Amino acid sequence: MIVGFLLFGYFSDTFLSILNLRIFHTDVPKSLQDFYSSGKYRETRSYTRERIHLHYVSSAFQIVIILILILGGGFALIDDFAKSLWGSETGHSIAFLVILFVGFDVLSIPFQWYSTFSIEERYGFNNTSPSTFIVDKLKAYVISVVIVGGLFWLLSTIYFSNPAYFWLLAWAIATFFSLLTTMFYSNVIVPLFNKQTQLEAGELRDKIEQFAGITGFVLKNIFVINGSKRSTKTNAYFTGIGPQKRIVLYDTLIEQHSTDEIVAILAHEIGHYRKKHVLTGFILSNVLMLGVLYLFNIVLIMPDFALALGMQPTLHASLFVFAMLFSPISMIISIVSNMISRRHEFAADKFAADHGVGLALGEALKKLSVDNLSNLTPHRLYVFVNYSHPPVLERLKRLF
After folding, report:
1. Secondary structure of 16-27 as H, E, C letters
2. Which residue among 131, 230, 282, 311 is the one 20 to 30 A from 214 at the CA level?
C-alpha cells in the first residue's frame, strides 16, 4: 500500500508536468506583446522546461531512495541506529526524525545546487554565493532541529502521558504554534537570513500610507528586505496579525517597478487583509489540522503499519508511515486549498481595481511575469492541482 501511494503521487505529478510542457504556445499572447519580445518568450519557455525536467529527476531520485529503504529494510536499520544514539522513547524518536530530515536534504543538495548555480545562474536570477548557500543550509538545519525537535518533544511527552486525548491536545498546541508563527515569523526567523529595514520616508512611503489610510488599513510597519542577496526575482508579501502585521517589499521590486505599480501591488495585499483572507486561511488550516491529527491518531493505534517497514511500533514510526499514506489525501486538501486561494487572489485584485489602481496593478503583473519568467499558458489541469495563484492572463482578463 505504501509503495503504491508513493508511485501514484510521483506518476500523477509527472503526468501533469508533461501536460504542462505540451501546451506551450509558440506566440506571445496579445495582451503581453508590448512586454515580451519573441526572444524573451522563448527564454521563458526554456526556463520552464528546465525547471520541470529537474523536478522529474529529483523526484524520481527521492522515490528510488525511499523504495530501496523500504524494500531493503533500511528504515529499520536507521531506527536501530537512532535508538543507540538516544535510548529514551522521546529521544529515540527525535534522533530518527533528525537523521531522516538531514539525510534526505543532504541527498537533495546536488539538485538544489544545480538549480541555483546552473539554471538560475544561466537565466540571470542567481545572486547567491556558494558560501551563502552553505550557511543558509546550516542555519536551516539548526533552526529546524531546535524548533521542530522542541515541538516534537512536547507532543511526544503529551502522547506518552495522555494517549487517549493526544490528538486534541496536539491540535491545541499546533494551533498556538501556528498563531505564534503567523505573528512573529518575519520578526524572528527572517532576520536570521535577510536584513529588513523600515522603508525610508519619501514619495513611495507617503503614497503607501495615503492609500492605507483611504482603505482604513492601519499600517506602520513597511519593511524592505534585501532579496537581491540571493535572487533578482521580485516579490512583496503581507505577514502578521494585529499590531504585528507588516508589509514587506523586496528591494528588487522597488528597483524594477514604479511607485504607482508598487502601491497597486500593496493594494492587492491590503485587499487580502480587508477581505479577511488571512483570518479565513488561519481558521481553515487549523480545522484541517484537527482532521489530520484525528487520522494520525488512528494510525497510532494500528501497529501493523510500522511493522510493514520492519520497525517496531513507535510514535515516530507511525508518524513516518502516516506521512507517506497521507499523500493522496494531502493532494485533495491541496487542490481545495488552491481553489480557495485563487478565489482570494481574484478578490484581492478586484479590491485594488475598486480603489482606482487596477490599471497600475495590471502593468505590475505584466512586468512581474517578464521579470520572473513566469509560464504564461500553463495547462488548466496543472493549474487546478498546483496553482495557488491564477495564471497572469486570467488575472489580466478579470482586471480589464
Report:
1. HHHHHHHCCCCC
2. 282
Q: Which of these, 202, 244, 236, 200, lies nearest to 219 by C-alpha position?
A: 244
Residues 32 and 397: their CA atoms lie apart, in Å, by 12
Spatial separation of the C-alpha atoms in residues 11 and 59, rounded to whole Å: 10
Alpha-carbon span 336 to 173, nearest angstrom: 25
Would the pLDDT of 123 be above 70? Answer: yes
Rounded Cα gap, residues 276 and 322, in angstroms: 33
Which pLDDT does position 318 carry in this prediction? 82
Percent of the chain with pLDDT over 90: 36
Eight-state DSSP code of residue 196: E
Query: Would you call 62 exposed, middle or buried from its count of C-beta atoms within 10 A (0-12, 13-18, 19+)?
Result: middle
Continuous H helices in 32-88? 38-71, 74-85
Most confident of the following: 23-27, 54-58, 90-94: 54-58
pLDDT band at 259 (very low <50, low <70, confident <90, very high): very high
Report helix, strand and coil shares of the chain as percent, to nearest 5.
Answer: 75, 5, 20
**What pLDDT score does 231 carry?**
93
d(CA 315, CA 93): 7
Report the distance separating Cα 250 and Cα 16, nearest Å. 31
What average pLDDT does range 31-41 have in this prediction? 82
Give the strand order in the sheet containing 222-225.
196-198, 222-225, 246-250, 236-239
